[in-house]
Amino acid sequence: MQTNAIETFSPSQTLKQAAIAKLRSRQANIGVIGLGYVGLPLALLFSEERFRVMGFDVDGGKVEALASGESYICRLPSTEIALARSRGFAPTSDFAHISNMDAVVICVPTPLNEHREPDLTYITTTVQSISPYLRAGQLLVLESTTYPGTTKELVLPLIENNCCGLRVSRDDCSDSRDVVFLAFSPEREDPSNNTIARRDIPKVVGGIDQHARDIAVELYSSIFRHTVPVSSTDVAEMTKLLENIYRCVNIALVNELKLLCLRMGIDIWEVIAAASSKPFGFQPFYPGPGLGGHCIPIDPFYLSWKARECDFSTRFIELAGEINTAMPYHIVDFISQALNRSQKPMKGAKVLVLGISYKKDIDDLRESPALTIIESLQTSGVQVSYNDPYFPSIGRGRKYNLNLRSVPLDHLEQYDCVAIITDHSDYDYRRIVEQAQLVIDTRNATAGICSPNIVRC
Ligand SMILES: NC(=O)c1ccc[n+]([C@@H]2O[C@H](COP(=O)([O-])OP(=O)(O)OC[C@H]3O[C@@H](n4cnc5c(N)ncnc54)[C@H](O)[C@@H]3O)[C@@H](O)[C@H]2O)c1
After folding, report:
1. Is 450 a catalytic residue?
2. Which of 91, 165, 318, 355 is deepest in the core (most CB within 10 A)?
3. Is residue 83 packed enough to be buried (19+ CB in 10 Å), middle (13-18) or exposed (0-12)?
């Protein structure tokens, strides 16, 4: 027997289908809030895929630069900004335009405050600023790294308390027409890694409900080859933290083993290379002068803070933090000991720090161990100079006021010590070793060079 069943959709299903259709046909307007290292490349990816993209930022200088087709991030050439501008990419500080967006992605900072606790003010300020302009049917995605529960416990009530009559779509409110869809999708950035195209990095997506997840999956499928849908925003948030904690703990492990190997006269780099020949069960991590960047030194502590709510102590995270935080001070000790062996006191010694960004070949100084090392050397009376092609000068930061200018890389013999802190690819290490009196190498940048003036640590 044949039945002529008429399919009926709930109001939120109808809104979802409309949202998906708009995304598929590239008719959707995409808004990206926070045009920094994460938000700007994301906006450009959407623009490449022929979406009309608006970028929102409270920093008028950034909006102005982008409006004139200029980039402020080294690895994004201005030509890319100009091209996106010609395709309609519009930067603005005016949140009233949010009402014209179909999908809004939030990429604002999530730092720690002075007590090393999560500082979510950027997220709350953003949600409060956009709330008056939200309308039914829009998708909102949080990309800022944060502890599990943020989207559900913080963003969701903020939206509902600030938007008159608007609700966030949940599995139990399918009959409402006045809903926005809310999701979380963590960013996976590896600055300076040119081995994988951004669109080949799988994108994890979790929604407050299944509708939100489906729309968010559609959104990201337009710019990423693979999406990984997960069952909730909590799972998506925790996934990002697991990834970063995994790195943080393993880097701490190898940093600690490096200190032991130095004492035992074993070359940790040779050990790691040999262990890496194992075809299963081992992934190499490398020691260095300490952790840097916006993610690895910070994100794990978002989880530690949240864990305290559950009477739970995240001991691996605390221990890894302790070891990694101590690394820059170990490097200062190694410099002091090496100078001492040359009968030179720290006070008055001339030290050139090579590379100050937190990672090689990038223009990002956030949480860089080089800053701690420079400050600590200065405190000991060392005359510190630095060279970094990515930073002509360093002034006042959140924690430091160093007020230095990058010096040219010549007459290296004038320094008592040259300390390689960040191993930028452009440096000619052979020449540096030939010219310098003493080289402290914290990155194995001088591998293969044999000279008595190198101290690897
Ligand atoms: N940089 C990375 O490699 C990376 C990788 C993965 C995840 N993340 C996460 O992504 C988020 C953003 O990081 P980022 O590196 O892009 O930060 P960023 O500091 O480079 O950029 C953030 C931007 O947000 C803007 N902003 C601040 N408050 C705002 C507001 N209320 N409204 C609009 N714009 C505002 C700032 O002016 C800035 O341009 C953080 O949560 C970070 O942990 C970063």
Report:
1. no
2. 355
3. middle
